Amino acid sequence: RRYDDKKHGDVDVAIATEHLCLAAAERGLGTCWVCNYDTNVMSELLPSTDFEAVAIIPIGHIADDCPRAEKKRKAMEEIVEEI
How far is 68 from 28, CA to CA, in rounded Å? Predict the structure, then answer.
């Protein structure tokens, strides 16, 4: 931002990460962002002087025996009001 020189790299990464998770879910895959990890280990696994890992996104097929909550969605008419 011009008025306070806020860099938006962290915001951009958050948006991109969530888009990846949503796209995977749309395809029936399971994901979860992981931000709590050992940064030293990550630096050893992905050495770079130009880039820094800020999130890990495990992705894969959900096991058949994985317990899942039934999706209960409200009808569009319940949440949208025509003005």
Answer: 13
Q: Is the pLDDT of residue 65 over 90?
A: no
Domain ranges, ordered by start, for the chain: 1-62
Q: What residue type is assigned to position 49 of the chain? A: T
Chain centroid to CA 14: 7
What angle is formed at CA 56 by the lines to CA 55 and CA 59, rounded to 5 degrees? 140
Is domain 1-62 in CATH 3.40.50.2000, yes or no?
no
> pTM value?
0.66
